[in-house]
Amino acid sequence: MSTTRPFSPGDRGPEPSGASGVSGAAAPAPEGSSGGSATAEAPTGGTAPPLASVEPAQPSGGRQVRTLDFADQSGVVPLARDFARQALYEWGWLPAASADKRAAAEDVLLVVSELVTNACLHAEGPDRLLIAWDNKVLRVEVADKGAGQPAPRTPHRAGRPGGHGMFIVQRLCLDWGVQRAPGQAGKTVWAELGAPA
Fold first, then answer.
1. Of 174 and 23, more confident
2. What is the average pLDDT value for the chain, to the nearest integer?
3. What's the start-to-end Cα distance of the chain, in Å?
C-alpha cells in the first residue's frame, strides 16, 4: 500500500514556540552539531536516561539514523515531535532558510505526529520511532504491537472529524507502507519524504 505525492507542500509557516506541549524537553541542537546521544530533561530538572541512539556522523551521502524507544514513556506524541525536530536541526533542515525548506520540515513533523498518534489510537501504543536520512530521502518508521492494517479512510470526507491521519500521510509522502516480521506480533508503519531542495 503506497502512493506518490501529487504536488509539493505549501508553506504553512513555523510552528509556534512551545506548541509541542512538552515542558523541559531538550532544546534543539544548534545547527552543525553532530553525534552524541539525545536526552530529554525530566520534569523535576534532573536528567532522564538516554532516549535515543545516534549512529556516528557519516560522510556526505551516508545514512544517519536516530531511534527513540517509547518504553515507560508518557506523552509520546509531543515527545516524538520534539525528537524529530531535534534530528531536523542536527541534519540542517532547521532553521529553514526558505519557505520550501520550512514546509518540508513541517511535513516531517506532521507525519511523525500522525504515525505515532495512529499507533496510540489503533495499536496499543508505539514501541519505537526511527528516523533515517540519506541526504535524499527521510524515512520515518513507527513500530507497534498492533495487528490492524492502517489505511486512509475511503471515501475521505474532509468535513468529518477523525480519520484523516493516513490520508495526510498519503498526501505528504513519496511512499508509505507496512512491514511485518514473520512469526512476530506487531508491525512497522513507514513513510518516506523527499529532502528539501
1. 174
2. 75
3. 27
Which of 180, 183, 181, 171 has the alpha carbon at shortest distance from 191?
171
Distance, CA of 105 to CA of 102 (rounded, Å): 5
Beta-bridge mates of residue 43: none
| 139-153: b (≥16 Cβ within 10 Å) or e | bbbbbbebeeebebe
Q: What is the pTM of this model?
A: 0.69
- Tell me the helices (H) and strands (E) count for the chain, helix number first: 3, 6
pLDDT band at 25 (very low <50, low <70, confident <90, very high): very low
What is the spatial distance between Cα 109 and Cα 123, in angstroms, rounded to a whole number?
A: 20
Angle at 33 between CA 28 and CA 36, to 5 degrees: 90
Q: For 103, phi and psi rounded to 5 degrees?
A: -65, -40
Among 32-36, 87-91, 110-114, 141-145, the minimum mean pLDDT is found in: 32-36
Residues 6+ apart with CB under 8 A from 13: 102
| Rounded-to-integer distance, Cα 148 and Cα 186, Å | 9
What secondary structure letter does DSSP report for 27?
Answer: P
Least confident of 88-92, 123-127, 161-165: 161-165
Count of beta carbons in the 10 Å neighbourhood of residue 126: 25
Q: Give ∠ CA 170-15-13 in degrees, rounded to 5.
A: 75
